[in-house]
């Protein structure tokens, strides 16, 4: 029996969680461990300075789930480090409300849960729906379940996870599936400065939702703009190979040794 661990960053009450769990029931034995509240844009966290609590709850369909006080990545770590009697064969995170494309992947708690699975050597998927309103998870859940089956059968390369983004349109209007690279996000954050009731200033990062360069062919943003499912393979090794030689030419070692000889003078 395939063991599937499901988490998310939208928390236990997210409708995307229930849709995903129910679709994955046809693929294997699903265990749900999710944060007790929303952790969107929390990145890849590791809670080390306070205790983590886990409690058992019921999903709206009556099935058992666990909520933890930790981040999405903590949920996976808890499971892998021994909360579960056996390691999962697959980690699936989502289905997030809102796309995770381009630079979003470093902010995303949805991705962080999948990263944590990958770091632990378990094939992992992150799944997101490209909308913040009128979310219809029907097709997305079905698609992710099919992809999960493929991943269980074929495996993934070490240190690689799949980032899946699904357009929020009915199944009949999906224009295909693209294997993509990360696109470029355009963030429209604005710093809002206000005063609290005691007269002290505080800041709030606000602004409009990000957009992206939809004309960059072959990217995740390009695919979603054409109502196509986007699957991007993500490697944990973020080294920029192309810059290594240039950086070596800075001869930073020489500068360190001259600074050292000066301090010995
Ligand atoms: Mn989220």
In words, what does this structure look like?
- By secondary structure, this protein is of the alpha/beta class.
- It has one domain: Survival protein SurE-like phosphatase/nucleotidase (Stationary-phase Survival Protein Sure Homolog, Chain: A, 3-Layer(aba) Sandwich).
- It is built from eight helices and eleven strands.
- The protein has helices at 15-24, 72-83, 104-107, 109-119, 138-154, 220-225, 241-248, 252-264; strands spanning 3-7, 29-35, 54-58, 64-68, 90-97, 124-130, 160-167, 177-179, 185-195, 201-212, 229-235.
- The strands form two sheets. The chain has a nine-stranded mixed beta sheet, with helices on both faces. Strands 9-10 form a two-stranded antiparallel sheet.
- Helix 1 links the parallel strand 1 (3-7) and strand 2 (29-35).
- Helix 2 packs parallel to helix 4.
- The N and C termini lie far apart (68 Å).
- The model has no long low-confidence stretch (mean pLDDT 96).
- The structure holds manganese (II) ion (MN).
- Manganese (II) ion (MN) is lined by residues 9-10, 40, 96, 109-110.
Task: Compose a concise summary of this entry.
This protein is α/β, with parallel strands linked by helices and 265 residues long. It has 8 helices and 11 strands.
Q: Secondary-structure element sequence?
A: EHEEEHEHHEHEEEEHEHH
- At the first level of CATH, what is the class? Alpha Beta
Summarize the amount of helix as a percent range: 25-40%
Summed up, the helix count is 8
Count of spatially separate domains: 1
Helix and strand content put the structural class at: alpha/beta
Strand ordering within the main sheet: 3-4-2-1-5-6-7-11-8
Radius of gyration: 21 Å
The biggest sheet, with number of strands, parallel, antiparallel or mixed sense and barrel status, is: 9 strands, mixed
Strand content: 25-35%
Low-confidence stretches: none
CATH architecture title? 3-Layer(aba) Sandwich
Query: For this structure, what is the CATH homologous superfamily?
Result: Survival protein SurE-like phosphatase/nucleotidase
Give the CATH topology.
Stationary-phase Survival Protein Sure Homolog, Chain: A
Question: Which geometry do the CA atoms define?
Answer: globular
Ligands in the model, by name, code or SMILES, are:
manganese (II) ion
How many E strands? 11
Average pLDDT score = 96
The rounded distance between the terminal residues' Cα atoms is 68 Å
